[in-house]
Design goal:
single chain, TIM Barrel, 2 domains, eight-stranded mixed sheet, 12 helices, 16 strands, 33% helix, binds zinc ion
């Protein structure tokens, strides 16, 4: 067996391109999220940022020149994925406080916030809603090695109705403020999908209902018609993009699922019919069930409007109860935090809430790895420590299946086979 493994590795080494960087990662344990099992004494061979093979220490031969990352006492989990982030937001600046800052400020703060996500163990984020294509710029800077950060799947501007959750509603009419993603009518939303994709969107975000932090909108209120939602889904899918719908209210959630939208964000007031629809159509729920803790305690100090504090409270417990019900029914749920509503570094705190509301620790980790990768359509790249995928992994000082609070303390973060954060 050992000889066979050695022969396979020898063949792999011969097949490696000249100058390829090879890394061998070892630890006490590794969580295989695809089988749901712990692998004891794993050894992971990485070439040019991707996993070549996963075996046991001693049974897996590595080329002599391999760079070693040995993590005794640690458990490896695949790099975490957050499907709902806003790295170009700061939770300490809310309500009318936005108006103090120039447009490029938000791009600049994306730099430390992206690093905070990476340091917390998130090696992939879906940034859904960023002004001025800031998320595309951050992605390019991260990929070019200018700044550290996770892999970014950018949505760029969110698409929404005039006066809806994703429009600018903070200024009087003489300012004629309209968010760039505003589009009304099926043809206009189709044109918007094409425009955003042209400039870097890899997923499309629509605002199907009102929201918590916008002014003069209600979360329960549907704000895009079925025809508009269908037009977005059809157009985005034709171009090979998935669609995420911000949807709190039961009617907007159902309209979005019926339109064929892939992920439902928030899903606060989802009803039984909506849960059945989600299950039947394979829609994925992305429910941010932690951040209300932060908003309710720190929001008043941060300038959160009284109406937003009220709406946050009205959507908090009902969303957590909906999460429990959705999980019990077997509806797909992926990890999404709405980071930026709460501080980015606090994002892993959501795991404890997902477990409190019904998930096992394994299911909560799968929601942020294999399930999230499938929701992105990126199973070949991320979401598991497996051959062919990027060598993205997080090491924890113990077994998070036994002690899930460990998930809040990433010790070592590895992205593409390189250590990007080391807190040992
Ligand atoms: Zn959001």
């Amino acid at each position: 067996m050992k000889r066979a493994a050695t022969a396979i590795i020898a063949a792999l080494v011969l097949a490696m391109p000249v100058g390829a960087e090879t890394v061998l990662v070892t630890a006490d344990r590794m969580l295989d999220v695809l089988s749901g099992r712990i692998v004891e004494q794993p050894a992971i061979l990485v070439t040019d940022g991707r996993v070549v093979s996963v075996g046991r220490q001693g049974a897996l031969a590595a080329p002599a020149e391999a760079i070693r990352i040995d993590l005794p006492g640690h458990t490896l989990v695949p790099g975490l994925i957050d499907l709902h982030t806003h790295v170009t937001s700061d939770p300490r600046i809310s309500g009318f406080g936005f108006l103090d800052y120039t447009d490029s400020f938000w791009t600049v703060i994306g730099v430390p916030n992206a690093k905070a996500m990476l340091d917390a163990g998130f090696t992939t984020i879906r940034e859904i809603g960023a002004y001025n294509y800031a998320d595309v710029g951050l992605k390019q800077a991260i990929e070019g090695g200018y700044i550290p950060g996770p892999r970014i799947v950018p949505a760029t501007w969110y698409i929404g109705a005039t006066g809806g959750h994703c429009d600018d509603t903070f200024l009087p009419p003489s300012y004629k403020a309209t968010t760039h993603g505003v589009a009304d009518g099926a043809d206009a939303v189709r044109a918007k999908v094409r425009e955003l994709r042209k400039y870097g969107a890899e997923v499309i975000k629509v605002c199907a209902t009102g929201g918590v932090f916008s002014r003069n909108t209600e979360p329960g209120q549907q704000q895009m018609t079925s025809a508009e939602l269908q037009a977005v889904a059809e157009e985005a899918h034709m171009w090979g993009l998935k669609v995420a719908a911000h949807a709190h209210g039961a009617d907007g959630i159902k309209a979005a699922i019926k339109a064929g939208i892939d992920t439902i964000e928030h899903a606060s007031f989802i009803d039984d019919e909506g849960l059945r629809l989600a299950k039947d159509r394979g829609a994925v729920l992305v429910m941010d069930i932690f951040n209300s803790e932060y908003t309710q305690s720190e929001g008043p100090k941060n300038g959160v409007l009284p109406e937003s504090l009220r709406k946050d409270l009205e959507t908090a417990q009902v969303q957590r109860d909906g999460f429990r019900k959705a999980h019990a029914m077997g509806v797909k749920i992926a990890f999404g935090s709405d980071a930026g509503i709460a501080p980015h570094a606090q994002t892993p705190k959501q795991f404890a809430w997902m477990i409190r509301y019904g998930m096992s620790p394994l299911e909560a980790i799968q929601a942020a790895t294999s399930v999230a990768a499938a929701a992105l359509g990126r199973e070949k790249d991320v979401g598991a420590i497996a051959p062919g995928r990027f060598a993205d992994m997080v090491a924890f000082a113990g077994n998070p299946l036994d002690d899930p609070r460990l998930l809040e303390h990433a010790r070592v973060v590895i992205k593409g086979g390189k250590v990007v954060n080391d807190r040992r």
